[in-house]
Amino acid sequence: MMKYSRSAVTILPLIFLLVSCGAVSDISRTAEASYSLSADGPQLRYIEQYSGIAVSERKRSGVPASITLAQGMLESGNGMSELAVKANNHFGIKCHDWNGRRMYFDDDRRGECFRKYRTVEESFRDHSDFLRYRDRYKFLFDFNVTDYESWAYGLKKAGYATDPAYPRKLIRLIEDYDLDRFDKASYGRAVSGKRTGKAKAAVDVTEDIRAGKQTRDAGGTVPATPAELETPRPLSDRQGRTMHLSLTRQLYSQNGVPFVYSVEGETYSDIARYYNLFQREILRYNDLPEDTALMPGTIVYLQPKKSRAARQVDKYVAEGGEQLRDISQRFAVKMKSLMKLNGMEESRELLEGEMILLRR
After folding, report:
1. Which residues does 255 contact at the CB level (< 8 Å), separation at least 6?
2. Which of 234, 138, 150, 177 is nearest to 45 (CA)?
């Protein structure tokens, strides 16, 4: 059954009242046009066609389906913008450090470079990854998956759009078309993405998020947040003994690799002696050619790092000014593994927006 927007349903009695009083005017005709557009217009066709992809992306990445759909509708003109039609780009994502196909389009400046995708599904997936793997957007995932207002204002705060009314526009779309129901859908099947208007999203709208609480069940309704995946966890004394390490100072683990935070005045040699390691071992574990003084709070690994990052930590998008070793230490992945994964012959300063693969 076709679902009308709340605004359209609200305005119908007013139209009938105006007609009965012989007061049909431009206002009533505008209202009737608005109602017609809402009942069978591009907005509902867009929702019907792409809601399944949005639900699938919510389950994969944790980005609310309501936000994905509202941004897609707004940024792509309900799938009818030139960028959406010619480049399958529904979210206005620019090239940055993009190695794929491109389209040049006048936006804030003339001839700006935008990403071009083979399918609409690729655009939706890249949008999710764009938010999940960039540090400036990671705080969004601390919000509940059903809290679309915080997500909308958070996107503006993080700099996704320059329009001061951007959050209000997203919220209006979500509320007018009940898009938040897709944040509670249990199942979603991505449709073909062809703009025929005939494909229907297979969505079973089941209330599996009780009282607005995120559920992370075996089916993966909402994945762990970036903060949960990347936050080091303290090791217990029992775990320390299993790793043959003293726990007289607190040990932590990242990607299954034990480490300590350095304190004022320490060197790598000091920490090596404390844990009965050779100096060359601890330097190798931390991808360093020689001993050096440490800033307090620096991560110092006590065992070899892994050849890939933890599961669900697939990539990292650089903010600019970082070294590859910084990424290696942050995610406990060996430098040589990162260089091989990313086709780099030597370490260098990373460019803003450059994507670093953390696992294949």
Report:
1. 305, 306, 309, 310, 313, 331, 332, 333
2. 177
Q: How many residues does the chain have?
A: 360
Domain boundaries, the chain: 6-38, 41-223, 232-301, 315-357
Domain covering 41-223: architecture: Orthogonal Bundle (1.10)
- The DSSP 8-state label assigned to residue 165 in this structure reads T
Instruction: Please state which CATH number belongs to domain 232-301.
Output: 3.10.350.10
Between the alpha carbon of residue 10 and those of residues 6, 16, 18, the distances in Å are 6, 12, 14
Q: Do domains 232-301 and 315-357 have the same CATH topology?
A: yes
Q: How far apart are CA 118 and CA 100, in angstroms?
A: 10
Angle at 94 between CA 92 and CA 100, to 5 degrees: 115
Sign of the C-alpha dihedral computed for residues 110, 67, 122 and 129 taken in this order: positive
Predicted confidence pLDDT, tens digits, the chain (360 residues): 334 344 443 443 433 333 333 333 332 223 333 333 445 699 999 999 999 999 999 999 999 999 999 999 999 999 999 999 999 999 999 987 788 999 998 776 788 899 999 999 999 999 999 999 999 999 999 999 999 999 999 999 999 999 999 999 999 999 999 999 999 865 444 333 333 332 333 333 333 333 334 444 333 468 889 888 888 988 887 777 777 676 678 999 999 999 999 999 999 999 999 999 999 999 999 999 998 889 999 999 999 999 999 888 999 999 888 999 999 999 999 999 999 999 998 878 898 888 899 998
| CATH class assigned to 315-357 | alpha beta
DSSP E strands, the chain: 102-105, 112-115, 187-189, 202-204, 233-234, 252-254, 257-261, 299-301, 315-317, 355-357
